[in-house]
Fold this protein.
Amino acid sequence: MNEASVASDLAAELTTQLPELRGKLTAGAVLADFTWFRVGGPAEILYSPADEADLSYFMANTKLDIPVTIIGLGSNLLVRDGGISGVVIRLGKGFGDIKIEPESRLRAGAAVPDVKVARAAADAGIAGLSFYRGIPGCVGGALRMNGGAHGRETCEVVVEARAVDRAGKVHVLPVAELHYAYRHCGAPDDLIFTEALFQGEPGDPAAILAEMDGIAAYREQAQPIKSRTGGSTFKNPPGNKAWQLIDAAGCRGLRVGGAHVSEMHCNFLINEGAATGADIEELGETVRARVKANSGIELEWEIKRLGKPR
Ligand SMILES: Cc1cc2nc3c(=O)[nH]c(=O)nc-3n(C[C@H](O)[C@H](O)[C@H](O)COP(=O)(O)OP(=O)(O)OC[C@H]3O[C@@H](n4cnc5c(N)ncnc54)[C@H](O)[C@@H]3O)c2cc1C
């Protein structure tokens, strides 16, 4: 049986199992269209839930052995060329609300881009969330990655997160239960975040907007933000900067196939246009091996690698 018919069999099975589903199921959606690197094979099934209740219905009524993978805006993802088996979930409009709450709080759906969180906070005179101006993901990705920049991290500004587990149960987790560390969230892997409540402090909208402009200007000159990239490839090891270790190992500009190590910021890998997922992953592993040989330090991938090789 070929892959396409397996995908459509799963689509048919899900459609039968889920008569009340309101979200959309698409067989064989190309994931390269949803990642910043612009690489990645198909999702066996791509599911776009209508809202949290629809997502919960899906999770409660599908067999637990069907693998489920959640993606955000794909700015921290390397999807392999063979694609992802099972169901890939991407949240859309039904998770896109922003609400300003009393005492400098902001509630945002998991599909809201971080930059919109920063803008809405600025407009409402809420300071402390402007660092999100520079992170090109959405709220769900920020919650899972503990996204941070310019001296602040998600764990410092989140009060609580809502999430749906693999059995369809909705949870509200206070920040302590998210078990955050540097670019890491220790909440159970099966949780799909649906919403976050953020805490800021009162601020002057014009001053916050000026700070955001400063962040945008800094990014333009320091990072290849207009390229096909996944941002920082490796976590900074304790006491070290990943980019300095990569530079010292002579990897700036290093190439594999259609991928290279950015000349501008050497912890960024770039797809020049025709790179495959395999090129980018091999480049990353070559960098890790050279850094290990040069410094004895093992770099840990910050980018999440998903799926199977071709
Ligand atoms: C140019 C550039 C600059 C960047 N700069 C920064 C930076 O300064 N600081 C920083 O921290 N990161 C940075 N990144 C990396 C990236 O933007 C962040 O990690 C971001 O938080 C990822 O969000 P996303 O929506 O794109 O998630 P994705 O990349 O789609 O997914 C990342 C992880 O989050 C999980 N996930 C996504 N949505 C959900 C959800 N709803 N529930 C549960 N899990 C979910 C995925 O399964 C995956 O494990 C940069 C990336 C680029 C391309």
Q: What stands out?
A: The first strand starts at residue 24 and ends at 27. The pocket of flavin-adenine dinucleotide is lined by residues 36, 70-77, 91, 110, 134-138, 140-142, 144-145, 147-149, 192-193, 223, 225, 229-231, 304 (CB under 6 Å).
